[in-house]
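Recap from last week: sequence in, structure out.
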Amino acid sequence: MSAAIRIVLVDTSHPGNIGASARAMKNMGLESLVLVRPGSHPDPESVARASGAADVLAQARVAQSVDEAIGDCGLVLGTTARGRSAHWRELDARAGAAEIAAAAAALPVAVLFGGERNGLANEELERCEALIRIPVDAAYGSLNLAQAVQIVCYEVRMALAAGGPIAGDTPMPATADERQALDAHLERVMRASGFMHDGNAGQLGTRVRRLVARARPDDGEVRILRGWLAALERRLRPEE
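Predicted structure tokens:
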């Protein structure tokens, strides 16, 4: 149904979960699977669990980092099983799917799922514009990885079937690579100005990256911000 919607499994340790996730995707018409540092791939168990979705497995791309998996994406959402800091915007699966369906009309979209034991690491979550949480019963909130993939893919299918805004005059969103370059440029200027230093770099850098992620600047806005930052850098250079 849509090759623009990318399911990204990060640090998946059990090959059966990879196969079951591929099956869940094909059930819902999705085909673009990226595996970041999989524990075992290809693997006979993943093929067996994929059932009729061996083609999704066969064309799955293996990446060594999240950045490699999402660089060209205009929207990156991460999934989480627990509440996070208020600095991340949180969506349920249905609201997240509506954003995915709308954004996929312009650029590829990635949905990140973390490993079975610990989920996504904080540095991986920081590459996301928002987080998806599946509202489960508080008495037992544990979802199998493939179950979570199935729920999100189902909601995406429903959102695509319902239709959404057409990307006509909507500005082209910045890609994940462009936003990361903006983050690095902001940090460089903050350090050059003395606003960021070793004592506050960790917390301040994280807060600024999350601010940019929540703002979701388009590609033109990123160029404006980077042009402004470049002008500031020139002013901050010592006179020769």
